[in-house]
Please model this.
Amino acid sequence: MQSWDDFQLILALHRNGSLRATAAELGLNHSTVSRRLAGINGNEQSLIFIRSGGRYALTALGERLVKVAELMEQAVHLADRQKRAEPKGLSGKIRLSVPDFFGQYLLLDDLFTFCQTYPNIDLHVSTTYDYVDLERNEVDIVVRGADELPNNLTGERASRLAVSYYCKRGYLERTPPEERRWIRPADGGAFSWDLADSPFPDVPDILRVQDHTMRYMALLQGYGMGRAVCFMADVEPDLVRLPGAKTSFMQDIWVMTHADLARTPRINALVSWLVARLRGRQDLLEGQGLAVAP
Model:
């Protein structure tokens, strides 16, 4: 094998375990991946992959080649970051990842104002709370909750993220105690919580929903009680905090980028913009009331 494309296929198949998932990652069809894998295996003295338990598993040769492929991938990503870090003034493409509810309820106006202020910057926003890999150049800047800044990244802590317990205004008055219900996250995930910490620890669930925004909308509809981030719920006149509800803090909010990109003018401009806007709303983010953004 002499082509990066071959090593890239080996690496993707190793990570995904199936031809279908590998094809989706590489933007190819299933038959193309199957044909290329057959060619790679056929050109080597020993097999690189064998089928095991319905998945493709590495042979000893495959394990050695994957290590080579990982080094090649790191070099490719480094070269790409160096190219993207080349100063272009305040112009060029930026890929930003923010949690969906941050984008919808907190930063939407700010992002449009940024684009109007810097018309030569091409901003692409993806909304997810899932992990994204800046080392593999999946995005350029990420807004996420974290206990501390990862070693390979640079960035600034903007605020803490506060949560509390809420229901629709009038829910407690019109709902008998035995009919009250919780709307909670599905098991696992960053926003899971224990009923023991709530004002009504003995109330059962009516529904479990993994999506944060869907749970929030269920609260607005009056379907039950639940926990929500304060910057969304405190400004909503139809929601009230439950009696005795305390404010608790999740992870700190960080605006992060890869160290290789940190001094690029357009990257630095957006990082600084986001940090300033988030810090301008620190009281709101930390559950202490409204704040005026800069």
About this structure: Residues 290-294 have pLDDT under 50 and may be disordered. The longest helix spans residues 60-85. The domain at 4-85 is CATH 1.10.10.10 (Arc Repressor Mutant, subunit A). DSSP finds ten helices and eleven strands in the chain.
